[in-house]
Amino acid sequence: MLRDEFVKGTRGLPPPIRFANFLDTCYNLTSRPAGIPRVAFHFDTKTLELPDKNYLYQAADNLFCLAFATPPPGSTYSAVIGNIQQQGMRVSFDTGRSLIGFSVGKC
């Protein structure tokens, strides 16, 4: 669903291309055009807007891919939000109060 909504938001850009089996939403970019949507996680009362580098993976020179992948049909793997999305982020857990926090960190 995320991929489909992202592609809808890129109207006006050339259609996305496939770079690898799991990187199927890639664009040739030299800079961030106005047609690239922002990606954010919405929680009950807060929103965490991701920096470009946390959802646009540079796969090759001037080739940027949406860094969310859906496992192939029939796969036993599930999609993971983590590696790219959490780079440079600090995640804190307050299990006593059932809270989770995010902040930009210098890692």
Automatic annotation (TrEMBL):
PROSITE patterns membership: PEPTIDASE_A1 (PS51767)
SUPFAM superfamilies, alphabetized: Acid proteases (SSF50630)
Short name of one Pfam family: TAXi_C
Record GO biological process: proteolysis
Coiled-coil intervals, chain numbering: none
Segments crossing the lipid bilayer: none
Peptidase A1 domain: residues covered: 1-103
Gene Ontology molecular function terms on file: aspartic-type endopeptidase activity
Family membership: Belongs to the peptidase A1 family.
This protein's name: Peptidase A1 domain-containing protein
